């Protein structure tokens, strides 16, 4: 499974201009204001694996996803897909690449055009890439509906006739219709009930096995991530603070924020594990704390953390950006 | 001892142009003094409606079409609007999913807290303010004495929900109904809020009805849990029993479908299909088209809640059959 | 596009009959009456050449002796009876109303169409593109909204006539009127469409189309346009009533269609001259028709707005 790299992201950064309109700025003598949604994010996704990004609301998960599929332009950084640098401005070259990746969205009620029939929705990528024609399209749509557990007769219905879980199946069928290798899934089950979530997660796994798909899975739910992914990246205020193999991350988290996230997961096993109460809330991303952005909430905070941004240090199966991790390393070397 | 709250055969209906939809169908449960009752179910199962019916805030055209609700031995489902308004806030406090809907953006937190305290209790302005500061401090607002004069939008989402909890508890109610109090919050903040809610209610002896779709929250917080499916109670009992040894096939399926941090399974247990819409609830047991253990009787007659060992009740023919065999 | 319309489902009519809109219509007596009145007047206008007992524009068929015949009474000279009487030139008032409504409705529909096409196009571009295009269009809209529409139409009408050679003025008048009214109304469509387009473009179905590289123009027309048509329809209906009244006002002021082709507004202007000399019917009947038409169309628009707004249901 640890095959070649399918997607490589280097130094991805995205700033949003959130200044007031020009006139207001002049009148109020306000400065231009920027919000850094992502800063210097780098990771690799290997062919056939599921790489997960976790983080709380506003940590920049969706922004990364949107930059990768070309919905947002990066302010800095590069994205390589199967060795090709993605340049969304170039038409013909990009068209070929575009067919090979797809996206599944969070809200199954907003992700399907309410005025289109399900068949037309699923066929849109087929038409856009000119993959099939005429009756073949109808047959292919029927096959895709079967594949995701619906029936080919559903092609003639409108989205409002389906439940949330069924709509998410339709969205998956649409994503599969261009026969992609890589699918970005932004919170694909957060809007669903657990019993429906189980169906969708199982379906995603089955499809991955059948077609050798590679997933970038975005979620704030650690249990889902644990269940689905091979490797995991943890985001805090737009920066990747830790990357590790899934098992290692859960058994031996390195970064204090990762540990805190794990502690916050309610204990369904009723093991009586007393959770360490997490303190504080995510700071305002417009004006993040200097040094390590996590320092106001960190139980291990040191003086250096307040001034210097920690650099990524290699860990057993990935890396973590934390002065305390580095210090530990130094200790253990001694 | 009479329970604090007793709901008997509650029926809630929505008349629509295509016929009347029955959103809650003969729901019965009790909440004991000082108890935390969790209410779980998929979206649309009727959790919020149960809460709304109890506090008399059903949105028209929804209406209580049958059953009774008793608070400390007195019926409250047929009270005139004015009397019900006095019970809300004073005897039953409320915490909703979105903190912004429970706070008035035009008034400071102090004004809202003091007003609530003074409407329901006979205390002076100064006393009320002192109480308000104490409450805010208790729910974990740092520098409460200073921040009490801020407006709601000055607080972050988690802090706002703390304020809402303080507001719900301001008049020292006997029961707090919390509808998805943490769903809109960040993961790391959810646990803080649940902790605060639980501790402060325990301190003041208030019972809690905790509505959520998150089994993990229930597991950590509730004493007993009620599982709703398609407007009917499937199972109700002590949290540990229900979570670790669910008896109703739906509860069992639900528990199996939740991924956990500790177990590594290739596939999750999956209940086929989805919860029926209100206009298409199947005959007999509402769960029968999806049930792995369905048998003939399930398709014709609806199973009633039957008492099981350990204060548990289950609505499933499997157990009624057992009871008959024994009896 | 492949056709996914299934055969085994209820036909379009059955589905339309069963829809929420149709249900709301069937349960709103006011809407039914309003629709009946509008349809009656529209049908009468369309079929005027067949329905009208006289051709008021054929000078050969006119008899000045018939002038000023009161409604339902025989003319004192000719003994002819007219339902709604005749005007000073002996034209049958009922027939002039049918032809007048024809002109009024034609101008109204065309003006709405013009305003709609212009407003939707600019609104879609502004809403989807955002940025300076959006700012520019919306500032123009703001400025335009500070003038009463009728004043603006008057202005546009005046300016346009200045450019048209006098020999063509009468022939062009009706088109100039349409453009003038249309230009004074486009802002309503543009603003609503812009708002709706901004909401729709951030929805995930639009993002899904962008991910696979669907051309923006196609996204606008195939994805967003169908989803913003609801409010547009409401404005268009109310806009029709406004346009008819605007036309009537302009014609009443004497700057609209020439009197050789009288619209309802022209008829009212003519009739107004006879009010104090006792020939009230020349004014009353065209006025009542205009009132019934504008009111019923407007009521229909109000009903449509409520029916399409799920929160009011
Ligand atoms: N178009 C935008 N303009 C300004 N700020 C934005 C924009 N999009 C995102 N942001 C900001 O960037 C940060 C990261 O947003 P992003 O949507 O990527 O978060 P997320 O991790 O996906 O959160 P969630 O779990 O809520 O989906 C947030 O602070 C957000 O407010
Ligand atoms: N105003 C309404 N009109 C019709 N049906 C409603 C209305 N409000 C709620 N319902 C229905 O009642 C059922 C229960 O709703 P609710 O209690 O909100 O569910 P939840 O368990 O998610 O809180 C759902 O099927 C819902 O569609
Ligand atoms: S760098 Fe310092 S403040 Fe940041 S996580 Fe590590 S120890 Fe905590
Ligand atoms: S009553 Fe029958 S169908 Fe319903 S849960 Fe029990 S076994 Fe399953
Ligand atoms: Mg997101
Ligand atoms: Mg609810």
Describe the protein in words.
The complex is a heterotrimer of chains A (334), B (327) and C (313). Chain A is built from eleven helices and twelve strands. Chain A has 334 residues and is α/β, with parallel strands linked by helices. Chain A has one domain: P-loop containing nucleotide triphosphate hydrolases (Rossmann fold, 3-Layer(aba) Sandwich). The longest helix of chain A is centred in the middle third of the chain and has 18 residues. With 327 residues, chain B is α/β, with parallel strands linked by helices. Chain C has a single domain, classed as MetI-like (MetI-like fold), CATH 1.10.3720.10. In chain C, helix 3 packs across helix 5. Chain C is globular and about 80 Å long. The model of chain C has no long low-confidence stretch (mean pLDDT 86). Chains in contact: A-B, A-C. The interface between A and B is large, with 41 and 47 residues. The site of one iron/sulfur cluster has 13 residues of chain B, from helix 12.
- Taken in chain order, the helices and strands of chain A follow as EHEEHEEHEHHHEHEHEEHHEEH
What is the CATH class name of chain A?
Answer: Alpha Beta
Distance between the termini of chain A: 36 Å
* Fold-level CATH name of chain A: Rossmann fold
Estimated helix fraction of chain C: over 70%
Shape of chain C: globular
If you compute it from the alpha carbons, what radius of gyration of chain A comes out, rounded to the nearest whole angstrom?
22 Å
Helix tally of chain C equals 12
Tags for this entry?
heterotrimer; B: 327 residues; alpha/beta; four-stranded antiparallel β-sheet; 12 helices; 12 strands; 35% helix; globular; C: 313 residues; mainly alpha; MetI-like fold; binds adenosine-5'-triphosphate; binds adenosine-5'-diphosphate; binds iron/sulfur cluster; binds magnesium ion
Produce the secondary structure layout:
The complex is a heterotrimer of chains A (334), B (327) and C (313).
Chain A: E1 5-17, H1 22-28, E2 34-46, E3 50-54, H2 61-69, E4 76-81, E5 84-85, H3 91-98, E6 101-104, H4 118-128, H5 135-147, H6 164-176, E7 182-186, H7 194-211, E8 214-219, H8 222-228, E9 231-236, E10 239-245, H9 246-251, H10 256-264, E11 312-314, E12 319-321, H11 323-333
Parallel strand pairs in A: 3-8, 3-9, 6-7, 7-8
Antiparallel strand pairs in A: 1-2, 1-4, 4-5, 9-10, 10-12, 11-12
Helix pairs in contact in A: 4-5, 4-6, 5-6, 6-7
Chain B: E1 5-16, E2 19-31, E3 36-40, H1 47-54, E4 63-71, E5 74-75, H2 81-90, E6 92-95, H3 99-102, H4 109-120, H5 125-138, H6 144-147, H7 157-169, E7 175-179, H8 187-204, E8 207-211, H9 215-221, E9 224-229, E10 232-238, H10 239-244, H11 249-256, E11 306-308, E12 312-314, H12 317-326
Parallel strand pairs in B: 3-8, 3-9, 6-7, 7-8
Antiparallel strand pairs in B: 1-2, 1-4, 4-5, 9-10, 10-12, 11-12
Helix pairs in contact in B: 4-5, 5-7, 7-8
Chain C: H1 12-18, H2 20-26, H3 29-46, H4 48-51, H5 93-129, H6 131-145, H7 149-163, H8 166-201, H9 204-211, H10 216-252, H11 264-272, H12 281-308
Helix pairs in contact in C: 2-12, 3-5, 3-12, 5-6, 5-8, 5-10, 5-11, 5-12, 6-8, 7-8, 8-10, 9-10, 10-11, 10-12, 11-12
The structure holds adenosine-5'-triphosphate, adenosine-5'-diphosphate (ADP), iron/sulfur cluster (SF4) (2 copies) and magnesium ion (2 copies).
């Amino acid at each position: 499974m640890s095959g070649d790299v399918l997607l490589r992201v280097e130094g991805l950064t995205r700033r949003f201009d959130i200044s007031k309109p020009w006139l207001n700025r002049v009148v109020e003598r306000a400065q231009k204001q920027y919000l850094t949604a992502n800063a210097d994010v780098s990771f690799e996704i290997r062919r056939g694996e599921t790489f997960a990004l976790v983080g709380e609301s506003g940590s920049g998960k969706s922004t990364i996803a949107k930059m990768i599929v070309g919905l947002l332009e990066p302010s800095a950084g590069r994205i390589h897909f199967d060795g090709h640098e993605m340049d969304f401005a170039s038409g013909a070259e990009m068209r070929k690449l575009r067919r090979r990746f797809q996206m599944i969205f969070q809200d199954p009620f907003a992700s399907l055009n309410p005025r289109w029939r399900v068949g037309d929705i699923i066929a849109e990528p087929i038409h856009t890439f000119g993959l099939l024609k005429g009756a073949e399209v109808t047959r292919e749509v029927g096959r895709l509906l079967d594949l995701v557990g619906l029936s080919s007769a559903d092609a003639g219905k409108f989205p409002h006739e389906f439940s949330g879980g069924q709509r998410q199946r339709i969205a998956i069928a649409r994503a599969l219709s261009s026969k992609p290798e890589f699918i970005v899934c932004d919170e694909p089950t957060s809007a669903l009930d657990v019993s429906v979530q189980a169906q969708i997660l199982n379906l995603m796994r089955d499809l991955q096995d059948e077609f050798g798909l590679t997933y970038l899975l975005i979620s704030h739910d650690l249990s889902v991530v644990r269940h689905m992914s091979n490797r995991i990246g943890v985001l805090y205020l737009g920066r990747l603070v830790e990357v590790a193999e899934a098992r290692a991350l859960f058994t031996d988290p390195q970064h204090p924020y990762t540990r805190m996230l794990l502690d916050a997961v309610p204990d369904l096993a009723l093991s009586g594990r007393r959770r360490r109460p997490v303190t504080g809330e995510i700071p305002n991303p417009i004006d993040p704390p200097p040094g390590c952005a996590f320092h106001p909430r960190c139980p291990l905070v040191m003086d250096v953390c307040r001034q210097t941004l920690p650099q990524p240090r290699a860990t057993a199966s990935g890396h973590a950006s934390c002065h305390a991790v580095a210090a530990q390393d130094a200790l253990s070397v001694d | 001892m009479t329970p604090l709250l007793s709901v008997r055969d509650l029926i809630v209906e929505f008349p629509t142009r295509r016929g009347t939809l029955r959103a809650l169908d003969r729901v019965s449960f009790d909440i004991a003094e000082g108890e935390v009752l969790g209410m779980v179910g998929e979206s649309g199962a009727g959790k919020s409606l149960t809460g709304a019916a109890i506090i008399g805030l059903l949105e028209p055209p929804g209406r209580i079409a049958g059953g009774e609700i008793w608070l400390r031995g007195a019926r409250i489902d047929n009270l005139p609007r004015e009397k019900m308004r006095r019970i809300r806030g004073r005897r039953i406090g409320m915490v909703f999913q979105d903190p912004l809907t429970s706070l008035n953006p035009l008034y400071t937190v102090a004004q809202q807290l003091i007003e609530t305290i003074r409407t329901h209790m006979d205390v002076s302005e100064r006393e009320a303010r002192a109480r308000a500061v104490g409450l805010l401090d208790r729910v974990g607002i740092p520098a409460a004495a200073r921040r009490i004069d801020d407006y709601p939008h000055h607080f972050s989402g988690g802090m706002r929900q703390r304020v809402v909890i303080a507001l719900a508890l301001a008049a020292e109610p006997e029961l707090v109904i919390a509808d998805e109090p943490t769903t809109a919050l960040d993961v790391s903040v959810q646990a803080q809020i649940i902790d605060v809610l639980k501790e402060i209610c325990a301190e003041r002896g208030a019972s809690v009805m905790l509505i959520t779709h998150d089994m993990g929250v229930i597991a950590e917080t509730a004493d007993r849990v009620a599982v709703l499916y398609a407007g009917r109670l499937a199972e109700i009992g002590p949290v540990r029993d229900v979570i670790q040894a669910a008896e109703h096939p739906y509860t069992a399926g639900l528990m199996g479908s939740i991924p956990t941090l500790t177990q590594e399974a290739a596939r999750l247990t999956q209940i086929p299909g989805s919860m029926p819409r209100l206009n298409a609830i199947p005959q007999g047991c509402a769960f029968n088209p999806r049930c792995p253990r369905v048998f003939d009787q399930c398709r014709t007659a609806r199973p009633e809640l039957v008492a099981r060992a350990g204060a548990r009740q289950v609505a499933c023919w499997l157990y009624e059959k057992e009871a008959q065999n024994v009896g | 596009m492949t056709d996914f319309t299934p055969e085994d489902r209820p036909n379009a009519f059955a589905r339309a009959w069963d829809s929420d809109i149709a249900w709301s219509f069937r349960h709103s007596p006011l809407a039914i009456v309003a629709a009946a009145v509008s349809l009656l007047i529209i049908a009468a206008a369309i079929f005027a050449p067949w329905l009208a007992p006289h051709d008021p524009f054929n000078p050969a068929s006119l008899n000045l002796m018939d002038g000023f015949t009161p409604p339902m009474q025989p003319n004192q000279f000719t003994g002819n009876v007219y339902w709604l009487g005749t005007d000073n030139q002996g034209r049958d008032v009922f027939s002039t109303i049918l032809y007048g409504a024809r002109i009024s409705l034609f101008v109204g529909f065309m003006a709405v169409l013009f305003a709609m096409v212009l407003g939707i196009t600019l609104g879609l571009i502004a809403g989807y593109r955002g940025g300076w295009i959006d700012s520019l269009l919306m500032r123009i809209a703001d400025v335009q909204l500070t003038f009463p529409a009728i004043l603006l139409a008057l202005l546009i009408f005046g300016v346009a006539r200045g450019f048209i050679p006098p020999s063509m003025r009468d022939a062009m008048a009706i088109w100039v009127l349409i453009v003038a009214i249309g230009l004074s109304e486009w802002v309503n469509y543009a603003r609503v469409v812009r708002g709706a387009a901004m909401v729709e473009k951030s929805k995930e179905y639009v993002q899904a189309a962008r991910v696979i590289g669907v051309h923006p123009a196609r996204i606008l027309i195939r994805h967003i346009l169908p989803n913003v048509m609801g409010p547009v329809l409401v404005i268009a209906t109310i806009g029709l009533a406004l346009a008819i009244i605007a036309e009537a006002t302009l014609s009443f002021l004497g700057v609209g269609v020439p009197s050789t082709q009288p619209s309802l507004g022209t008829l009212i202007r003519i009739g107004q001259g006879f009010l104090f000399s006792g020939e009230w019917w020349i004014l009353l009947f065209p006025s009542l028709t205009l009132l019934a038409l504008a009111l019923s169309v407007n009521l229909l628009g109000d009903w449509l707005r409520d029916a399409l707004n799920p929160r009011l249901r």
